Amino acid sequence: xxxxxxxxxxxxxEARCLSGSGYTVALSGARLDxxxxxxxxxxxxxxTHLLSFGLAGGLDPALPPGTLLLPMRLMASDGKNFEVDxxxxxxxGMLLAPxxxxxxxxxxxxxxxxxxxxxxxxxxxxxxxxxxxxxxxLAEAAAGLPLLVVRVVADGAGxxxxxxxxxxxxxxxxxxFPAVLGSVLRHPGQIPALLRLGRVAALAQVVLRTAxxxxxxxxxxxxxxx
Length: 226
What we know:
By secondary structure, the chain is an alpha/beta fold.
């Protein structure tokens, strides 16, 4: 069977970390409705395998920024659980072994988890180690298609997202620089936090690019899936 990899990411900067070719990328713009539309486009476009790729927020205080996540399971905010494809996960794990990926479950949120208190509460309630807004949406749309999640912790469990980070993304996943500047002018006290977030996000993207390179042109060993 001819395989075609569909990849869902939130941001253009995440998509730029990918290497190789022969896949389709759809961007959510870090919005729930955007994630749903993007996931549906991938499935309708004939994807045979689905990959959620990008950054995540840390929930487990033991996981520092830059930790590679290769979860076996996803938990949505409504309590639904989704399993990734085990054979694909195993092959990807061998390719990504130099980065020591963490296979523990991730949480799928329907809105941005911006505060330390919210992260702490989710970790205490679910035991999931990180959170994003795309993976569970892609799992819901998969309808039995093989699913894999490759994410990297950017903001750690003890890091709150400053206001500019919450308004600074366009629907197409690009950075909204005027919105960021406007937020900073209104709330200049957030500048140190914004700079720290930029540094850890840059570190996480280095790991993400490395993961994509290790994954190779076959899309994290997608070839050979049945």
